[in-house]
Amino acid sequence: MIDLDGLREYMRRQSEEDRKNRTVQVEASSVDEGLRQASIELSVPVALLAYEVLARGTPGTLGMGRRPWRLSVYVPGREAKAPHEEVAETPVAAAETGPVDVPGEVFVRIAGDGAFLRVVKPRGRGPRATEVMALERLSLRGVSGFDTSLVSRVVRHADGEWVRVADVRYTPANDSVVSVEASDGEMKASIVASEPGAGGADPTSDYLRGVLQSHGVVHGIKDDALAEFEAAPRYNRPIVVAEGTRAHDGADARIVYQFKRDREGISLKEKDGRVDFKDISRIENVVAGQLLARKVPAEPGEAGMTITGAVIPAKPGLDAEIQVGKNVRLSEDGLTATSEINGQVLVLAGRITVEPIYTISGDVNLHTGNVLFLGTVVVRGSVEDDFSVKAAGNIEVFGSVGKCTLDAEGDIIVHQGIAAKGEGSVRCGGSVYSKFIQHARVQAGENVIVTDGIIHSQVDANRTILCQGRRAQIVGGRLRASEEINSKILGSVAGTETVLEVGFDPKSKERLAQLETERHTVEKALEEVERNIRTLENLQKVQRQLSAEKAQYLAEQSEQRRELLGRLEVATRETGEINTYLMSLTAIGKISASERVFPGVRLAIKNANLAVRTEFKFVTFFLQGGEVRVTKYESFNEELMRRR
Asked: Are the beta carbons of 385 and 402 closer than 8 angstroms?
């Protein structure tokens, strides 16, 4: 054991040995103030400085008898290290973001059962705590009678654990005094602990918790802050040790729309690396049963609590409702809205509405782009060349239709006529109504009704083609209908070839032609394959064994033969089914002209054909005995001329 004088002598010797850098002596009102002054003079961060107390300061009484602290401050000598391992001075920027290299520290705690020493390792490349630092801290706390070898071991191990190193004469009157201050509307509590005097105890986390509770702080106590203070006390500075729980108002209910509400947004798509400016999506199509919107309910909010336990109420979120218009169904719980029909979804006056009709006030052009709508489309203007209009309902065009594509599941009505320039096409599942049809391909699931004329066009109708009006005339092209073709004039004075066919389903007839072409192609390919197989098989008989390459080729040809035979079988079966269907049709068909039929017209009723070589007037052609016969004109069903 050593006495206090011996300890001071030992500390002086150790200080002289460690002092390898510049040393400064400072006078200040406190140790912290002195270290700050020395840090400026030595250009070294405070955390890297060590010091020796040359004279203890006293505050005096009312300014009388006040003495400053005198310190000898230096940078502790390093243990043998390579030059590159020296600790660099911490720049200001690094100090702002937190030091990378933190020196080891020494802590002394006085309790009723003795003095405890705790040493922590440095972080990064910070210097280790020294034995001198430990002895100094013990001396400053008035601890004596300890075993220096035990202190040395604690410093060397630096495991961060508290180790009892000496007995103390405990003086409760010199314990640390802890004050508590509430702030921020009782949402925060801070403590300020004074440094204990000689023999006074350091506050423990349990003691601090008791002090807080005695001041009414019962909520939000930060156990980690209390434990940190106990492990590394920071005296005479405020430390936040409790924080209340702030109230969180509930989020308002919101409506999540499952469709784009911005009608002005344009979505351009690329085709073959080029932007197609015609493919502009301005219609938000929906189908029956599709989810249009869902409601995210309002949240009730989370109440808060002050550090004293007072509850801070939270406001619940505001409610919102899904507003629905026509053709939209709201669920019983009000959380979802779904479409009742196919059509265009809109938000009108804040209400979700599905419109079965999409109206374009002007022309279909670059401004509108191509139109695709799951309902009926009404075009107040015309459809310009190279654009398309496709609808799941009807299409009605008040202007004209150019070299474009019209496709509807219902009817197509064109007020000013179709002039497709040999490239456009019109297809519908119902009937086509137009003023005229010129150089177009038209397919109708029911009827084609025209008032002025059909000129050089390909027209197919599953029921009737009617061309009746003041200038009604069918000239050129090929027209096919299941039941009837009826016009004012058929052909022209110039003898233009005009082909008219009735008595069969045009689609089936067209498919039959496709199958015949396919069968012819497959049969030709099959002949070639059969020839190759026969050649290889004969070669195999002569040579007994084919080369690997020829054997593989024989296998490939055999596989191709199986594929071609399968295709031929499918085509033959479908051809038979179509022929059977055509023979079963009850509609025989007829072709009529209410004024004239000019030479150049070729007629076909089922399998009977007639080429008109002389002019006819007011006639109807019909099938009798396998031949095309002529009778007086039979009028058409005038109800067909009236649009539904």
From this structure: yes
- The set of residues, in sequence order, having a beta carbon less than 8 Å from that of 552 and lying 6+ positions away, is none
In the chain, the percentage of residues whose pLDDT exceeds 90 is: 43
Half-sphere exposure of 54 (CA within 13 A, CB side): 12
- For residue 17, give both structure tokens: 């040995």
Short-list 91, 74, 86, CA closest to 24: 74
Whole-structure pTM value:
0.53
Q: How confident is the model at residue 81 (pLDDT cuts 50, 70, 90)?
A: very low
The pLDDT value given to residue 84: 34
Model pLDDT for residues 518-568, shown as the tens digit of each residue: 989 999 999 998 888 888 888 888 877 888 888 888 889 999 999 999 989
Residue 558 CB-density burial (10 A; 0-12 exposed, 13-18 middle, 19+ buried): middle
Cβ density class 317-344: b for 16+ within 10 Å, e for less? beeeebbbbebbebeeeeebbbbebbbb
- Quote the tokens at residue 506: 């045009």
Whole-number Å distance between alpha carbons of 282 and 288: 20
DSSP state of 640: G
Query: Is the distance from CB of 442 to CB of 418 less than 8 angstroms?
Result: yes
Torsions phi, psi of 171, nearest 5? -120, 95
Beta-carbon count within 10 A of 566 CB: 11
- Measured CA to CA, the distance from residue 231 to residue 250 in angstroms comes to 40
Q: Name the 3-class secondary structure at 541.
A: helix
pLDDT, tens digit, 9 for 90 and up, residues 344-398: 898 888 899 998 998 999 999 988 889 998 889 999 999 999 999 999 889 999 9
Q: Is the dihedral of CA 58, 59, 64, 68 positive or negative?
A: positive
Helix (H, G, I), strand (E, B) or coil at 597: strand
Q: Which of 414, 410, 390 is nearest to 402 (CA)?
A: 414
Q: Indicate the burial class of 296 (C-beta count within 10 angstroms; 0-12, 13-18, 19 or more).
A: middle
CA distances (Å), 129 to each of 119, 148, 547, in order? Answer: 7, 15, 88
Q: Which amino acid is at 335?
A: L
The gap from C-alpha 638 to its chain's centroid, in whole angstroms, comes to: 57
| Phi (first) and psi of residue 362, to 5 degrees | -120, -140
Task: Give the mean pLDDT of 122-147.
Answer: 85
Who contacts 65 (Cβ-Cβ below 8 Å, separation ≥6)? Answer: 58
The dihedral over CA atoms of 171, 176, 180, 181, expressed in degrees to the nearest 10, equals 140
Q: What's the chain's Rg over C-alpha atoms?
A: 51
Res. 504: pLDDT tops 50 = yes
Nearest to 571 by CA among 629, 515, 490: 515
* Helix (H) / strand (E) containing 151: helix 148-157
Q: How far apart are CA 21 and CA 75, in angstroms?
A: 6
- The one-letter amino acid code at 606 reads K
Tokens of 198: 């000689």
- Closest to 486 in 3D by CA, of 497, 502, 470: 502
- The Cα 241–Cα 205 span in angstroms is 10
Contact call for residues 329 and 336 (beta carbons, < 8 A)? no
The Cα 328–Cα 487 span in angstroms is 46
Report the alpha-carbon distance of residue 226 to residue 193 in Å, rounded: 12
Closest C-alpha among 101, 45, 96 to residue 73: 45
Q: For residue range 12-22, list pLDDT tens digits in order.
A: 565 555 544 46
